[in-house]
Structures are given as structure tokens and as C-alpha cells.
Amino acid sequence: MGNLFGRKRRSRVTEQDRAVLQLKQQRDKLRQYQKRLSLGLERERALARQLLRDGKKEKAMLLLKKKRYQEQLLDKTENQISNLERMVQDIEFTQIEMKVIEGLKIGNECLNKMHQVMSIEEVERIIGETQDAVEYQRQIDELLAGSLTEEDEDAILEELNAITQEQLELPEVPSEPLPEKIPEASPIKNRPKPELVAAS
Predict the structure, then answer these.
(1) Arithmetic mean of pLDDT, 5-23
(2) Residue 159 CA: distances (Å) to CA of 138, 155, 162, 168, 181
(3) What burial class does residue 84 get, using C-beta atoms within 10 Å of its C-beta: 0-12 exposed, 13-18 middle, 19+ buried?
């Protein structure tokens, strides 16, 4: 039903993921076995004490030998669990390294494409053209700045000083004496208005 168009869905689970899962399952089984052994050891130790109290030394000795063998199995189980955990960590770290390498590969391909677009010769040509344009502009600036002689410079300074002096000069003081009295009324104000004249 999920494959309406006949296309298979690709699983995201890799072989490495399956291997990690199996290793973790084995580790969990070993831990369960380890728990059972530990509980059995405690029971057998208690039973050995009881047998010694009951005076059954031979049976207690056999039970302690069995207990000793199981303790060795417990140590081996612990080593196997450590080995499985180390293997899981190694696989997971290798997966990370593979992703890093894949990223580096993609980055290298991208850089190579960019280098094909911009070759060293192209970059050198652009830098050369830029330096030529800067040098050309510098020469134009020098020509423009150097086209004025010292006499021209002096004339410009004199003109500048003259303009400055004109702005600072005050108006001349009149030589004639000022009138003492100011006339009171202006004759223009006393004239009759044109409308009134026409009405009379």
C-alpha cells in the first residue's frame, strides 16, 4: 500500500547501525547473565555457611569451588561487556569520522569548481589591471596638480587675500558734517489723497 508508484522506500538504517544495535543487545544479555550469576553467588555463599554449620564440610567445599568458578565467569563477563562497549564506541566514532570525510570531500569538490571558474592566471590578470588603473589615475592626479606653476599659485593666493580683505573692509567715513536737525514731517504725508480731490 505504501508503494503506490512502485518505488521502494530506502531505509535510513545502515549496516553500521545494525551492527551497533546487535552489539548493544549482546551487551544487555551479558548484563542480565551477570546479574543472575551475582544473585546465585550470594545464595551459594549462604548455603555454604549453612552446610558448615550442619557439619557437611565436603559439600560446603564443593559448593565453594562452584562459587569460585562462577566468580571467574563473572570476571570474564565483565571483560566481554567492556569489549562490546568499546566496539560500539569505535563504530559510532568511525561513523562520525566518515561524515567528516564526506563533508571534506564535498568541500573539496566545491573548491575545485570555484578554482575552475577563477584560475590563478585570471586572478593575476585582474590584479594587474587593477594596479594599472590605479597607476593611471595617480598619473592623472599628478598632471592636474602639477599643471599650475609657482606664479599661478602666487596669483591664486593674492586673489584669495584680496577677496578676504573686501569682506573685512568697513565703509568709508563721510567727510561732510552730518545735519543737526532731522525734518519733522515729510511733505509726502501731507498731500491730499487722490480720491478726496476728485470728490470735491
Answers:
(1) 76
(2) 29, 6, 5, 14, 44
(3) buried
